[in-house]
Sequence to fold (414 residues):
Amino acid sequence: MKILVVGSGAREHTIIQALRRDPEKHQLWAAPGNAGIAADAEVVALNATNPKVVTEFAVSADIDLVIIGPEAPLVAGVADRLRKAGVAVFGPSADAAALEGSKAFAKEVMAAAGVPTGQAWNVSDRTGLLEALERTGAPYVVKADGLASGKGVLVTDNKDHAIEHAEFYLQHGDVLVEEFLAGPEVSLFFLSDGTTVMPLTPAQDYKRAFDNDEGPNTGGMGAYSPLPWLDEGFIDTVQQQIAEPTIREMAQRGTPFVGLLYCGLVITDTGIKVIEFNVRFGDPETQVVLARLSSPLAPLLYAAATEVLQSVEAPVFSDDVALTIVLASEGYPEDPQSGRVLTGLDEASGDSVSIAHAATAWDGEELLATGGRVVSVVAMGSDFSKARALGYAAIGKIGLEGSHFRSDIAQGIG
Fold:
């Protein structure tokens, strides 16, 4: 199969690595890719958010399947243009991508579908903000309504900090003030062809920058899978109470959802509730979910893209533990320093350890870090102790001036 993966991060690199493990030998392209992806696929210098450019390349290269990794191309309508041209694409339309592009829209859909979630107040000015904060009380949960690369959410006991965060994002659009939901968080992905949904396997990620869940929110500093502490029947419950009603509601609205529905969940004292929906593979959870995938990936995504998901067998996952540790540049997430030399990746890789590149580039002679989250170290082991030992031994071999990573990924699990 000829497959184009749109995007340039660790998520896209992980998808490509999984596709390379398929028994069928695919021809793989990535747009625009990065230095690590270039070793596993042919990279093409395309503007990933330009529907016309992406579609023209896909048609000219006779691509069988386009997999869209990040949210921005989806919100920009890249999937719409591809479908109109007759190209199979794994990723929702721009209208359906509003489930992530607008948190207010997602709340509206959940309310109509009867999906359990926290109360929320959509505010557009300081007066509405103060009223909403008064209603909820601390801890305060403030979210930018639109896309913010995982950094638009603030949970704080400090009202002044909540106001400051909200007022920054109010310059760009509306803000949601939400009820605080207490409990462990779980990420669960569902494939959807617009009618049928199919679950992958749960993961848990670490959103704060530093150990012990301290520091600012990030795009994600690590993750692990499986989750041995989850109750039996968790996946079925989420499928029946959350994923299926949401997909039905989207279809009834005339905006069928084709692609991956990311359910960000919290297990509260009163049941499972949705924190947020995303409309694409999550990063860094994808790194551990696909590391444990032992059945082929391409047939699943192609079946979803061509609306025949019910015709393929459910994915199979290894019993092994997978964890990923994100190496971030100095100053991430507020002010990441880029352009520094990155070393030791070959030494860090091994039979049970892989490296997914997030923000890397060659300058001709040296590998450079070009963004905030630089690489994800992914380790597999028969138990959590072995996976942690392998992962942290590997990341210790990587050199990047001023870099940081969390030392508590999957600590105390299993």
